[in-house]
Amino acid sequence: MRLRGDAVTRGRRRAHHGPVTEDDVRELVCGLPEVWAVTASEDIGAPEVAWGDSFFYYDPSGRGADLPPQPFATLVTKDYPDFDTASNLNRPGVFRVNVAIGRAGFESLFGYSPTAHAEHYADHDYAVLDRVVPHPVYAAQGWVCVVNPGPQTAAELESLLRRAHALAAERHHRRTSLG
What we know:
Aspartate Aminotransferase, domain 1; two-stranded antiparallel ribbon; globular; disordered N terminus
């Protein structure tokens, strides 16, 4: 992940030692091939609760005209009342990166299937900073998240985002080849 303060030396990345910013995440994801990013706003007709949040889609057309129903990653800057508050995102300077890594990726990280997450919900602190945890709402669909990524999760988050992008590309190609 090309993060603020990172250096690339002979093709290898040095460890990231500081906080990862929202702009760092957007830069990384938008640097992946064929990504369409949408930041929710009043101008695009998004619900007010989502304003400022970013949604990342695989879109080889580059037009945003035929986006899949689900993004492969999102960047959320606040709690969604009565729906998604477990990460306590309303703290100053706190944001969460959400990543759709699929069933196999989820199981390899946590040792149980996404559909079994309800049984493990209480095992996780969804508000902890700089740790990969199951998504508090969408874990059953193979989503994970990181609140305020930093030195502990920067490299892993980059890998997870690349994996989610590859899975989104695979889904797109399967959909388009079927007609």
